Amino acid sequence: MPENAALPQPLHDALLQLLGPAGLLTATSDIDPFCIDWRALYHGKCAAVLRPANTEECAKAVALCNQHNVPMVPQGGNTSMVGGATPDDTGKAVVISTTRMTRIHDIDHADLTMTVEAGVTLKAAQDAAAKEGLLLPLSISSEGSADIGGILATNAGGNNTVRYGNARELALGLEAVMPDGNVLNLMRKLRKDNTGYALRQLLVGSEGTLGIITQAIIQLQPAPRSRETALCAVADAKSALDLFAAFRKQDPSAIQAFEFMSGTSMALVNKLIEGAPLPLSEPAPAYALVELGSPRGDDSLRSLMEDVLGTALEDGLVTDAVLAESEAQRQSLWMIREEHAEAQKRAGASVKNDVSVPLAAIPTFIDEATKACEALIPGIRVAPFGHIGDGNIHFNLVQPEGADPKAFLAQDHAMMDTVAAIVRKLGGSFSAEHGVGQLKTYMMPEWRGGAELETMRRIKNALDPKNLMNPGKIFPAA
């Protein structure tokens, strides 16, 4: 693998003067952690890591890199599942990290908004909102390290999408540094602003290929004053979906989250994660985690939960259930759900299929994809889980016990293509919330080819004619 390429001396000196020693990292030991993705699938190289402290420094650093034709890889918390924030192995690029941009500028109770810099972690933003009696509704398993800029750049979804929408729905205003160093200021707290193209929506989900998000205005909600959470044992995905329909029929506005977990995936959590035993009497083929929430303190959510689950138990739709009796118990139930990705990582190599299909097609998808993957690789552990309430299933495939991880991962495209063929037949998407990154670029021509992909290319070429901003992501090699 090539060694890191040195920055041109004039660029190095200008960046050092601009960013200082804390903002310009060039030692191999300092920059290596920025060149490996969370899943350890991609091991890149870079010439330096730039850590601007504010938008002005970021803009000037980008302008300098553009002048010297140096590729730039924006990076936030480095939690991408698809290698979206990892440089390639040429060593020519710089990583531009937003981790020093951590100021929360404003929480507006009238507008229910929060103004934050890109490097604020989602957990820090959630905690700041909670101190003000408000809720930042986006919730993902990596919220302790994922930051606001990266979350918006990838249009993250998460557990509460069924009620509040993806990151795109929560971004009211944005500021971004464009590939030439110009600052695009879209920081407006307006619900109605019909003045041309919605440029902020172009940046959200662009995976850092069009610019670097540096600040955002995020919409908040009143904090729930009452909340009920239950873990339910069910026979399969169809039963989970029927249970979701039962809650939605009673009161769709009360549903805060509705998560699905397969028996295989749950068993890995119970076995490999300390402090995460199954809180039910015996294992089940599948599980649903239900959370209801309301800003009204006297809301009858417990009655609603008990009524729906009581009927579901009588009808055999649910075979067992446990209701959280305290905040600690609620957090324990959610911890079990949030540790599925980590448990699968500990179980060995895994191939992650972040897909979405129409809700009615979920049972068919899981059944057909499971059979197809088991036929493809005998002994494979099919471990789906995810946001069944909005049609997003993480159809993850864990290596057979005792198998060679490298040999298993060498078949990743065969597994991904097998799953994707079923997803496509059912009218779904091969990427629901994780993005394309560099892992799934090869899928773009077949799925988004023709006028759609060509339009994306034209936008990219117009804003980044040198292809310096996060090259190799989203678009397949020409």
From TrEMBL:
Protein origin, superkingdom: Bacteria
Gene Ontology terms describing biological process: respiratory electron transport chain
Reported cofactor(s): FAD
Gene: glcD
Pfam families: FAD-oxidase_C, FAD_binding_4
Domain FAD-binding PCMH-type positions: 42-223
PROSITE patterns: FAD_PCMH
EC number: 1.1.3.15
Example GO molecular function: (S)-2-hydroxy-acid oxidase activity
Gene3D superfamilies given in the database record: 3.30.465.10, 3.30.70.2190, 3.30.70.2740, Uridine Diphospho-n-acetylenolpyruvylglucosamine Reductase, domain 2, Vanillyl-alcohol Oxidase, Chain A, domain 4
Similarity comment: family membership: Belongs to the FAD-binding oxidoreductase/transferase type 4 family.
The name this protein goes by in its record: (S)-2-hydroxy-acid oxidase
Keywords: FAD, Flavoprotein, Oxidoreductase
